[in-house]
Amino acid sequence: MSSTFGAQSTTDEVLAGIDLTGKRVLVTGVSAGLGVETARTLAAHGAHVVGTARDLDKARGATKAVDAGALELVELDLASLASVRACADKLVAAAQPFDVVIANAGVMACPKGTTADGFETQFGTNHLGHFVLVNRIASLIKSGGRLVNLSSAGHRFADVDLDDPGFARTEYAPFVAYGRSKTANILFAVEFDRRHKAQGIRATAVHPGGIQTELGRHMTPETTAAMIKSIEDAAKAAGTPAANFSWKTIPQGAATSVWAGFVAPADVVGGKFCEDCHVAEINNEPGLRGGVQPYALDPARAKALWAKSEEMVGEKF
User: Fold this and answer.
1) What torsion do the CA atoms of 200, 3, 154, 103 make, to the nearest 10 degrees?
2) How far apart are CA 183 and CA 297, in angstroms?
3) Residues 148-184: pLDDT tens digits?
4) Which residues are catalytic?
5) Fewest beta carbons within 10 Å, which of 43, 47, 254, 282?
6) Mean pLDDT confidence for 236-257
C-alpha cells in the first residue's frame, strides 16, 4: 500500500476508501495551512477531530469548510507552558481517548525571541510545547494509536545543541534554530516510540514538503529564492533526476501526515522519518533534497534530548 503514493499524492487520494468513523484525532494548529487541511480531510472521512489553536476566532474562520459536528476547537498556545498544561488538563479531564495525535503546529525562521517561559522561540514552540502536551495526554492515546510529529527537511540545517539550546553562547541564525527544533521533533518521536511501543502505541515524524503557507511569513523573497537554489544545487550535485524544485499544494503537503497516521503499517513508520508518503532513507549528504540525517534518528541522542527537555520544563514523564 505504501508504494502506491508519492510526492504528488493528496490527502483525499491517500485516504480514498478509508472510513475513519469512530476515530478521534487531535491535530494542533488548525487555524491555517496544513492543520486546516488535515482536519478537513479527516472529518470528511468520518473522524472526530479535536483541533487546537492559539487564536480560536481565526481557527473558526479557517475551518468553516469542516463539518462543525466533526470538529471541536480547544485553545492552545505552544509558546506558553501554562497554556499547554491547561489544554492538557482539559483534555485529560474530558477522558476521551485519541486514536492519533498529529503535532502539526509550529513556527519557522522567525527573528530571535523567547517564549513566555524564556525558551528560544522555535525550540520552545515547535519542540518543548509539544513535548509537554503529548506527554501529559499520553494516557489518552489508545493501544494501536499513533503520534505523528510534523518535522521538516529543515532538520538538515542543524542537530540539536543540548549544551546551548537557547543560543546563549551561539550566534543566533533563524534557520539553524529552525533546524534544531525540527531535529528535536524527530528525536522526540524516536524516544516516544521506544517508550510506548510495548503498549501498542507508535510514533513517527514527517516532512510535508515545500508548501507556501503562513509558516513562511518570516521569509523574504530573497531568502526563499536562496533556499530553492540551494535545494536545486544539492540535487544536481547528487545527480537527482528531478533537480528543479516545485512547491507542493496544501493537500499534497498534508498527505504524508495522514498516510503515516492512518495508512502505513505501524511497524513500518514507528520510530522513523517519513517524506512523500514513504519512509525516508538515511542521507548524510549536505543540502535539503531528500532523506534523513542519521543524527536525527540516533537513539542515544533521543534519550539525551528527552532528559534535557524534562530538565528545561521542570517536569518528568
Assistant:
1) -40
2) 9
3) 999 999 999 999 999 999 999 999 999 999 999 999 9
4) 151, 178, 182
5) 282
6) 77
